[in-house]
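WP5 quarterly update. Target: SprT-like domain-containing protein. Source organism: Chrysotila carterae. Length: 145 aa.
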Amino acid sequence: TAGYCSFKTELGGRRVASIDLSDKVVDCEERLRLTLAHEMCHAAQWLIDGASRPPHGAHFWKWARRFEQKVPGIEITTKHSYEISYKFTYECTNCEHSFGRQSRSVDLARQRCGKCGAALRLRPRLNEDGTPARQRAATGFAAFV
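Structure tokens (predicted):
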């Protein structure tokens, strides 16, 4: 998810919206512009129209079309197609299905491939140029733990 718009109603009936962006996904100006435009349409549908559901219904598209008319070069869609750079990539030892994570959140001893059920492995980390990344030495705290 590149961004998320949260809605709430405060005491007294005042509607509030807040937008959160993922710095792991929104990592350039173009992605910022497109993601913020999308999330601002959600904010408008809530703050001005009072509608939160469906998330990509008529109220959302009303604001999306208005935004596109006012801001040249913006095309609002419901899903992004950004290539995301992950710190960690896991792959199946059997079917080679792969997926990425920003942290080491997969327990290789416990979790299995969702497609075929085989064991998973962590791919070696690569630099941006495709060369293997240098492994850092364990810190004193890591050795202690």
